[in-house]
Specification:
single chain, Serine Threonine Protein Phosphatase 5, Tetratricopeptide repeat
């Protein structure tokens, strides 16, 4: 089970660097068909073609580019209006968003600060700068900025979300939950907040966690990582049939999603004791990732249980070569009579 949980840990470490817009941008970008212009962008292009002096359309298109991770094009639009609208805090706040998403927090802070110099109450800049400090793990600044944003604008789900994330990183789970719940109270379609609540409730109140994950999937029905987390919840709470079905649903959408392949292998190996079927799943994982030490370890265990000692030995050695001092591989080799 530790290998399966470690995969969940990898996923959680990835989303810790999330941004509210970043999650959405990846989802939207993946929906675009190759060599086509999405309708939203086409509409903005036509609007600007008819009225090139429409500054608001430049902002809208820049924001669309940001949401879809097309930062170079966003910068072009924002620089296009720089001379015409240099006092507008929206300009600098969007520039801050670009540089934050590019992983340049110093430049992001500079532009958010410029926005706030022009309007100290500008919510997008307060929230953006709070997010910037959260990435830098400066929690005191994150709390100060989210509190300020909420003071000026009580209906502020993004600010509550960022405060919750900061509390979670500091280990204050109760405060994190309180703020996530406030975020979804204000925005009942706040996908990321539902996911985080599902994660926090997963260990102690799995039924609550299931509800939060299902609410997230109500908003984004085919969100692979959330589907995987729900499947993992079923797996970790002994709901084997539901776990099998949920992991298969993931693979129906993405046949190469190796975490679910690994999880299925583990279920068949550890819970169902069907070592032959488990082998086929670990084979698929290794075909996609030849350096997956845990997959070799588990496949070796399956061979061991099937009495195929030479293949078990080979896989255990492979796991140990990939991950020196892999204690479970060392123990496995000792178990089959090798040092």
């Amino acid at each position: 089970m530790n290998s399966s949980k470690s995969l969940a840990g990898i996923f959680l470490s990835i989303i810790i660097l999330f941004s509210i817009s970043c999650t959405q941008k990846k989802e939207k970008a993946s929906d675009n068909q190759p060599d086509t212009i999405p309708m939203a962008l086409k509409s903005l292009n036509e609007r600007l073609k008819k009225n090139p002096q429409n500054i608001e359309s430049y902002y809208e298109r820049a924001n669309w580019f940001i949401q879809n991770a097309r930062y170079g094009e966003a910068l072009k639009d924002l620089h296009a209006v720089m001379k015409k609208d240099s006092l507008n805090p929206k300009l600098y706040s969007l520039l801050g968003d670009v540089y934050l998403n590019l992983g340049k927090p110093i430049q992001a802070e500079e532009y958010y600060s410029k926005a706030l110099h022009r309007d100290p109450t500008y919510n997008d800049a307060l929230v953006g700068l709070a997010r910037n400090y959260l990435v830098l793990k400066d929690y005191d600044q994150t709390f100060a900025l989210t509190a300020k944003a909420i003071t000026h604008n009580a209906l502020n789900p993004k600010a509550y979300y960022l405060a919750a994330w900061a509390f979670a990183e500091k280990g204050d789970t109760l405060s994190a939950i309180k703020n996530y719940l406030k975020a979804i109270e204000q925005d009942q379609d706040f996908f990321d907040a539902y996911v985080q609540l599902g994660i926090l409730y997963g260990k102690k109140q799995p039924q609550m966690a299931e509800g939060f994950f299902k609410n997230a999937l109500r908003i984004k029905p085919n969100h692979i990582h959330t589907m995987y987390l729900l499947a993992l919840l079923y797996q970790n709470t002994g709901q084997t049939d539901k776990a099998l079905s949920a992991h298969q649903s993931v693979l129906a959408i993405d046949p190469n999603y190796s975490p679910s392949m690994f999880a299925l292998g583990y279920i068949y190996m550890a819970d169902i004791l069907d070592f032959q079927t488990a082998l086929t799943w670990f084979d698929r994982v290794i075909q996609l990732d030849e350096k997956n030490a845990a997959a070799y370890l588990n496949r070796g265990y399956c061979y061991e249980q099937l009495g195929i000692k030479n293949k078990a030995s080979s896989d255990y050695h492979r796991a140990l070569n990939l991950q020196p001092n892999f204690q479970k591989a060392v123990e496995a080799l000792q178990r089959i009579g090798e040092k």
